[in-house]
Amino acid sequence: MSRAVLHSPLMAIAPILVLLAANLSQAKPNVALRSILVSLALAMLLWGALGLLFKDWQQAAILVTLSLVLFYAYGHVYQELRPVSFSGITLGRHRYLVPIWIVLLLVAVWLTRTRFKDTARVTQILNISAAAAVAIPLWQIISFESQLPFDDPSSADVAARMGLSWQGSEVPPDIYYIVLDAYTGEDTLRKTFGFVNRPFLEQLSELGFYFVEC
After folding, report:
1. Whether 129 contacts 95, CB under 8 Å
2. Can you give the pLDDT at residue 46?
């Protein structure tokens, strides 16, 4: 365990599994496969390049893992700092964060090359940490999927169970249910912004759309 390098490939897929686990009600596990493969391939390419450069595969793997942590953490830090201001300066700006991340990457290189002498020990710690980072979302995914029904009924099966049937002789039309959750309602546009949206809604009606009055 102390000599086997597992943390780099594990850390390459851990953030993707975490994102998938947080959105299981919106996405199926197979949608993450391509992202996992791309992340793994890039991490292994970087590991190979650094291994040839450093002549030390454990040091190279350590730097790859630290780089992956910085890469996947950037977006989260950026989102958290976007609404934060200090003395009138918004902290969540790329112009501030990118230089900081470059410095952190350089620090990671320096630590890896000069401070991490006992690479076997560091590798063991990173292996355990990365394994935990993968195991937790993986367990969440497995638990969620195990509670789902094995059969995936078709729309016809669902309609039959609900006693629904099409009475017309022609082929039934496709129905699209569009929810514009970020689109301001007509009354709010009129009262708050003084904007009359009725002509646009009437055009939708003329095109055959039905919209719910609110």
Report:
1. no
2. 96
Structure token pair of residue 44: 């292994």
In contact, 64 and 45? CB cutoff 8 Å? no
pTM attached to this predicted model: 0.69
CA distances (Å), 118 to each of 19, 46, 47, 107, 123, in order? Answer: 33, 22, 19, 18, 9
**Interatomic CA distance for residues 204 and 201, integer angstroms:** 5
- Judged by phi (left if over 0) then psi (alpha if -120 to 50, else beta), residue 137 lies in alpha
User: SS3 of 58, please?
Assistant: helix
pLDDT tens digit string along 46-81? 999 999 999 999 999 999 999 999 999 999 999 998
Using CA atoms, how far residue 178 sits from 29, 33, 70, 90, 195, in Å, is 25, 28, 38, 35, 22
Helices then strands, counting H and E runs in the chain, come out as: 8, 2
Contact in structure between 1 and 124 (CB atoms under 8 Å): yes
Q: Which of 147, 149, 145 is nearest to 17 (CA)?
A: 145
